Structures are given as C-alpha cells and as structure tokens.
Amino acid sequence: MRKFLVWSGVTALALALGGCGHTDEEMAAKQREIDKLAADLKAAKAQIADDQSKFSEAQNAIDKMKEQLKQAGLSLDKSQGEAQKLAQALAEYKQRADQLAVIEARFRELRSKLDKLNQFGVKVVPRNNRLVVQLPGDILFDSGKDELKQQGKEVLSQVAEVIRSDKDLNNRYFLVAGHTDNVRYPAGGPFKDNWGLSLMRARQVTLFLVDDHKADPKKKNDVAGGGLNPRRWAAVGYAEFDPIAGTVESQTKDDGQKNRRVELVVQPNVEEMLNLGSIK
C-alpha cells in the first residue's frame, strides 16, 4: 500500500509538471518533492524486501523444527501431551518421595529405640528389607537344646521391657525366627531335624516374651516373663537355610556360631515397604 501511494504521488507530480507552465523556482521545488518521493519509494521497497527476508527465515526455522520433531516421532500436539504427562509423573514422584522420607524417618526413630538393646549383647540390623533384632543362640540355648538358659531369659526380659515401654514398638507385629548352623541334626533326636530345632527354639522365645509371669522374689534367679501381646507375635523356623555367614553348604566354626541365632523381625506396615538399605 505504501509503495502504491508513493508511486501515485510521483506520477501525479510528473503529470502536473507536464500540463502547465511553472517558474524555475516552482520547478525546482517540484523536482525536490519528486526526489523525496522517489527516495521514500526506494526505502519502502528495501523495507519490504527486508521484512520478506526475515519472514522467510522465520518460516524456514519453523519448518526445520517441525521436521526435527517429525524425525523424532513427535508432533507439537504430542510433545505438549508428553510434557503434561511428564509434569504429572514428576508431581506424583515428588509426593511419593515425600511419603517415603516420612516413613524412613519413622524407621530411623524405630532403629534408635531398638539400639538400646545393644547393651544386652544383641544386634539391631536391617536385613531382607526388615529391621531385625539378632539374639545369639549360644546366649539363649545350650547346644541341641530348646530350653532357655538363665542368661537367655535375662536378655529376653530386657528386650521385652524396651518393646513394652514404647507404644509404637508395643503395637508392632513381630516374627520370631529360629536359625541353626549347617551341622546335621543327630539321628533319633527329639526334634527330628534342624527344622524342628529352629522352630522349637523360636517357640520357646515367643512363649517367654508373651508370658505374663511375675518374678517370684522367693525363688532364686526367677525372671519375669515379657508380658507382650501374644496377638502380635508368631514363631517360625528356618533351620540352616538362611545363614548370615558362610553358605548353607560351607561354614567355618565362626560362621556356625553366627548362624545359630534367633531373630525378632519387625513387621512393617504396607505403606512402609521401602528399601531400608540407607539406614545405617
């Protein structure tokens, strides 16, 4: 439009000059106006050419980006949709991460409470994604026996007191797991095999922990039962098939001593199923 107006002005001036007489001064003024209009026309043409060049470059850039997206198997609509899905996934991940952080903090607190038991010769460790209180079998039982020793009762009494005095611990579910070394159980023994021995040992520990027996001061070395809720305790036996040292097939004497144990396994709630490996 600007080009048309400039050109029309030049044409009109030319016709006017040719159609009537003018003085030299008028002619010079008209010529200057013609020169200005011609300069404006030239500038307008240059501006249009520059705008067209920039438009062409921008269009080429857009076309190139579309081609790159197409080669990547994406469209603008699809990429926007994927971006929305990614944003939603990130939001869900953050929410889950926050929940896990709360659960992990809860387990750390639980671990710190159970760590009080270390002074009684037991270990509290994360194992198989569970918190486990490991009780050395040699403290609890004589070789091949399932009767609790005096020292074992005293240790279990202390363990029960720690659990009973803490509301969170006392409301947890526990699994009492008996374990043996890989030495074959003697033929004709009362427990038949290591399965029977490990299970009966776990049973004896469980019975003591839930026993509400009060210590009789008249009886020497009488130890009170744990007094824990029997509805939250269960016993299992693993025989030699879950060693913490050596292998089922090969164990040194030191390995066997470590494997003869009873574990109190803290059962997590459903929402607490997370990797406890980070809890040191």
CATH architecture of the largest domain: 2-Layer Sandwich
Largest sheet: 5 strands, mixed
> What are the low-pLDDT stretches, counting only 5+ consecutive residues below 50?
2-7
In total, how many domains does the architecture comprise? 2
Overview of the molecule:
There is one protein chain. With 280 residues, the chain is α+β, with helices and mostly antiparallel strands. The protein has two domains: 2-71; 105-278, 60s Ribosomal Protein L30, Chain: A (2-Layer Sandwich). The chain is 54% helix and 11% strand. The protein has helices spanning 2-19, 24-71, 76-114, 137-140, 150-164, 167-170, 194-210, 253-259; strands at 123-127, 130-136, 173-179, 233-237, 261-267. A five-stranded mixed β-sheet has the order 1-2-5-3-4. Helix 1 (2-19) packs antiparallel against helix 2. It starts with a helix and ends in a 13-residue tail after the last strand.
Q: TL;DR of this structure?
A:
With 280 residues, this protein is of the alpha+beta class. The protein contains 8 helices and 5 strands; from the N terminus they run H-H-H-E-E-H-H-H-E-H-E-H-E.
Topology:
Blueprint (H helix, E strand, L loop, with lengths): L1 H18 L4 H48 L4 H39 L8 E5 L2 E7 H4 L9 H15 L2 H4 L2 E7 L14 H17 L22 E5 L15 H7 L1 E7 L13
Parallel strand pairs: 3-4
Antiparallel strand pairs: 1-2, 2-5, 3-5
Helix pairs in contact: 1-2
